[in-house]
Amino acid sequence: MLRASLRQISLALKEGRVTPTELCQRCLALIRSTQVLNAYITVAEETALKQAEEAEERYRRGYVPPYNATVVQKLLDQGAVLLGKTNLDEFAMGSGSTDGVFGPVRNPWSYSRQYKEKVASRSDSEPENSNWVIAGGSSGGSAAAVSAFTCFAALGSDTGGSTRNPAAHCGVVGLKPTYGLISRHGLIPLVNSMDVPGILTRCVDDAAVVLGTLAGHDPKDSTTVQDTFQPFALPSLTDVSKLCVGIPKEYHVPGLSSEILAVWSKAADLFKNAGAKVVEVSLPHTCYSIVCYHVLCAAEVASNMARFDGLEYGHRSDVNKSTESMYAATRREGFNDVVRGRILSGNYFLLKQNYEDYFVKAQKVRRLIANDFVKVFGSGIDILLTPTTLSDAVPYVEFIKEDNRTRSTQDDILTQAANMAGLPAVNVPTALSGRGLPIGLQFIGRSFQEKQLLTVAKWFEKQVQFPMIQLEEVKKYDNGVLQHQESASYS
């Protein structure tokens, strides 16, 4: 039942073949049996069960939830059950979900039959982190939770790829909507001008269902567009002969693995053989995108993190020698090295003597990047097809050898430009690597053309028939010893 789509499970609920409480209990049970993934920070078991009971009552007398972020509120208004909060990099600053205060998220595919058949098995006496791979980030917990069947959909955020990156590594669909289509009210800001709530599901149809619930103007967020959003059901595309697919040549970046390149090329051939027009296009300023992003990101982080001063918001230090010392201790204790580093960099870029050379120039480059997309789509291109990540998910022990900034630069390089331009983009799981790990490809569409974007993604999803994860035995790490936990095996 946990493998069903949102449409299928919604029908089952309406027809009474399963109750919200039964469904909630199954999700919670699987969450408990997959704790080793570290996907959830908090499992709100009592709250979830209470909401499930209230959801059953909703069919009879309605349900009014408490205050929440707009995206959460909209889901609750439609009878969704909130299972818990998922794990992520601290303040969403990372690309591996390895820098959070609750520890790293483990990729469910680390415990799949497909992966274990490809790598040498290790004994329980070996170090915990010797074999499992990262979930991607920053919304790694959400991607891992969906991938492991512990929930049907999850929310993330996407500032430079934080929804699409973990979606690619965990073998799920990750949608970054057009900037302004979904309310940011309640989303802790990282880069206000690029942040968007992201959607993670196991199929494209489900992403469209969630989008239909979340999209639309919100008076509490002045950046949301005021045009009325009409939810849509995705058609089953059978003819792609009128479709023009662009392949940006600048996305052949250094570090792109041969496996990703092969999957990308095969996907382009798939469209071409089906009758679509596939052409190489140029986005000449893409190569400057990641540098531009780091300047703008740090500058906005410095501004946004200023609110966490220990007086009104966030952690407050016990140091009370002076206001200045309290501030310094509070922010040293309350932020990890990654967050502190971005704050310091941002304040440097925003200094009066540096403002024009860094922040203003970065904004000008951002406009050039956005204009590149306008020109390409204006030339008759309907959709862009690119890789999502440079490679499949890497082992944790390899990932942490690089510092956060270096890793983010590498991992966001293929996703970040869409944020600069505010365009919708979606990761679609495409194939398994030689190690038995997911490889995803990214589709980028025109602004506010999510229906076209997801329709093409759905057609592609049907063609590639990405295999469902086959979870084997999941183990729990406890007191320095790997212990067997309840087996989670699926056919």
Automatic annotation (TrEMBL):
Tell me what reaction this enzyme catalyses.
Answer: L-glutamyl-tRNA(Gln) + L-glutamine + ATP + H2O = L-glutaminyl-tRNA(Gln) + L-glutamate + ADP + phosphate + H(+)
Gene3D superfamilies, per database record: Amidase signature (AS) domain (3.90.1300.10)
Q: Name one GO cellular component term.
A: mitochondrion
Name of the protein in its database record: Glutamyl-tRNA(Gln) amidotransferase subunit A, mitochondrial
Role summary? Allows the formation of correctly charged Gln-tRNA(Gln) through the transamidation of misacylated Glu-tRNA(Gln) in the mitochondria. The reaction takes place in the presence of glutamine and ATP through an activated gamma-phospho-Glu-tRNA(Gln).
Q: Which domain of life is it from?
A: Eukaryota
Question: GO molecular function, one example?
Answer: glutaminyl-tRNA synthase (glutamine-hydrolyzing) activity
One GO term (biological process): mitochondrial translation
* Keyword Ribonucleoprotein carried by entry: no
